[in-house]
Specification:
alpha+beta; four-stranded antiparallel β-sheet
């Protein structure tokens, strides 16, 4: 059987994340969402999203890359929320039967406002 190796990036809020005003946090979240949408449109990220119910409140969400871990790290390091120190991440290789997960062009929201709209 053939397998695909995907990289799962786990987004984590570090204990020493900088404090932001509500306006700064909203602006940074929109920049993070724009970045994620652009990476999806470029075919770098297959899927991404926040976790709603989580045992560890520091674990924020996941992104799945069709890239090796080094390439995924290079991209994830450019996320504005990572660059600002508001998020950090880990990477793991996830083995799935070949062609289980495929890129499907769809529109990711580019802001909280867009995500909240119908």
């Amino acid at each position: 059987m053939q397998f695909d190796a995907l990289t799962v990036v786990t987004l984590i809020r570090p204990d020493d994340a900088p404090e932001l005003t509500d306006a700064e946090e909203d602006e940074l979240q929109d920049a993070h969402m724009r970045f994620t949408a652009e990476q999806h449109e470029a075919g770098e990220i297959l899927a991404a999203g926040p976790l709603i119910e989580r045992e560890d409140p520091r674990v924020i969400g996941y992104s799945i890359y069709a890239k090796d871990p080094d390439a995924a790290r290079t991209i994830a390091e450019q996320d504005p929320a990572v660059r600002a120190g508001r998020l950090t991440f880990t990477t793991q290789v996830w083995m799935v039967p070949a062609e289980t997960i495929a890129f499907s062009p769809s529109r990711f929201p580019r802001s909280m406002r867009e995500a909240a709209s119908d």
